[in-house]
Amino acid sequence: MPEECVHGFEPGMCATCYPPPEPPKLAATRRSPRTAARSLRSPAPGATGKAAEVRPPNLPQRMFHVTHVTNLPAILEAGELRPSSQVTPALKLASPITDELRSTAPVDESRSVADCVPFSLSPLAVWWGEVQDGAAGPTWSDEARAASTVDFVVLGVDLAAVGDDLVVSDGDAAAVVTTLGRSPEDRRRMLARAAADAAVLQAAEALVPGTVPLSSVALVAVANEPRRDEVRALLRSAGVSIKVAVYPPWFVPVVAE
Fold first, then answer.
1. 68 is in an annotated binding site
2. Which of 128, 153, 201, 222 fits as disulfide partner to 194, beta carbons 3.0 to 4.6 Å?
3. Is residue 44 included in any domain, yes or no?
């Protein structure tokens, strides 16, 4: 099996060492959704015939859960990620307004968005960019505004590691205008939309009803070496073996070109 890249990621999972062919400059578009990648059906200017055909990009294979490092000990003790309806984290990002919206937004007949563990399809999600930019506005807590982004960790989970209950949205899952993909066909269609459109990729959510076992976590990404050493020590004390990688681009604001 090929060696991991210099950033500590498995082959194909590092956006720097293995840049995806579509869409171009994906990370740089997070601040400007209007400049998202060209539709798959739109040929390059001046292109005609077979040369104008664009192959569909690969569907997202991994989803990302961001949490403050102070929340990690409780996660390790529980042995799983739990939805906000079941746990009170040491550092809470969402404001009471956001909590109310997510607890009343239905995912199905018996569960709300708050009953699901939330993930993003991109480690440079729109909401995470808002936190990096200072967490302004009523959707964020005072703790979120005071937190340093280098004190967060990003947990990567392969989509294949979760069950068929996975729900994929094309935006904020609690928003009225957001579409939810629940069935296998709808999920695949939503993932294809995200793969084709950078704005959708960075706004979409992947929701796992119930809990997500730590055994599903393939990677923990951190901002710097001291944080990596701290997280490794926490994992070791809990008897958990998960790859920890240093990848600063996921923790600093990205300005669109």
1. no
2. 201
3. no
